[in-house]
Amino acid sequence: MLKRKNKELNIPDHIAIILDGNGRWAKKRGMPRTYGHQKGVENIRTIAIASAELGIKALSVYAFSTENWKRPEKEVNFLMKLPGEFEKKFKDEFKKHDIKVMFSGRKTQLSKENLEILERITKNTKDRKGLVLNICFDYGSQTEITEAVKMIAEEVKENKISPEDITKEMITERLYTKDLPDLDLLIRPSGEVRLSNFLLWQAAYAELYFCDTYWPAFSKRVLEKALLEYTNRNRRFGGLKS
Ligand code: IPE
Ligand code: IPE
Ligand code: MG
Questions:
Q1: Could you tell me the pTM of the whole model?
Q2: Going edge to edge, which strands form the sheet with 207-210?
Q3: What's the burial of 164, exposed, middle or buried (CB within 10 Å: 0-12/13-18/19+)?
């Protein structure tokens, strides 16, 4: 069934993936959790290129959550080295595939060095026309929405708008994802069935797909399986079946 041609798949504009299961993947192989993170970051490249080839416009990946700071210091320190790794290792291939990279998340807790890396990657890829890879790093959906609400509250305070003028579009326009297409499909590998504070607002009408594969083993084939299921879903958005 997976041999069906891509043109028979309904290709979503925007998919999001929770990069989960790195630790368990490594443990199964008798390796430290950090080995899983290393493989996990490399898999972003594989799946970003696969997504670009499939014609997906935007891919959001959840790489580090606002809650992941609770992990042991050693693991957090390792994860904080990933933006640098990312820049070094992916630069040329992303250029070849015309992939534009953006980052979603708080800019208040990351080191100056990491902020500079994030800024540099964003700046160097901003004019690309291919897939947009949205890396969610120190990202939390509740923080994102809270920040949007604060911006609107400021505008009310300055008498620019009145509370009754506030619309849901005004919130959407103040999220990190404001320039991306609506989220169509949200994938969580690794067997967990929860959103863990990822794209709560954006997922309002996204299709959800859960699978058992750990992220480092998540391949183009697994992605195509998710897309096949997505193709067979009936999206009604509250209306009736067409
Ligand atoms: C996802 O893998 C990566 C991050 C959350 C940073 P995990 O580290 O959560 O791996 P598991 O879920 O413990 O296997
Ligand atoms: C979600 O995974 C966050 C990322 C993958 C970055 P977690 O492993 O942190 O989520 P929980 O703790 O299982 O909900
Ligand atoms: Mg996990």
A1: 0.96
A2: 100-104, 132-139, 58-65, 14-18, 185-188, 207-210
A3: exposed
Which atom number of ligand 1 is nearest to the Cα of residue 64? 6
The superfamily (CATH) of domain 13-139+182-232 is Decaprenyl diphosphate synthase-like (3.40.1180.10)
Q: What is the CA(19)–ligand 2 centre distance, in A?
A: 8
DSSP at 164: G
Q: Which bound ligand lies closest to the C-alpha atom of 138?
A: 2
Q: Domain residue spans in the chain?
A: 13-139+182-232
Supply the residues annotated as catalytic.
20, 68
- Residue nearest atom 2 of ligand 2, based on CA coordinates: 20
Tens digits of residue pLDDT in 193-212: 999 999 999 999 999 999 99
What is the C-alpha to C-alpha distance for residues 57 and 181, in angstroms, rounded to an integer? 8
- Specify the pairing of strand 132-139 against strand 58-65: parallel
- Band (pLDDT 50/70/90 cuts) for residue 242 is low
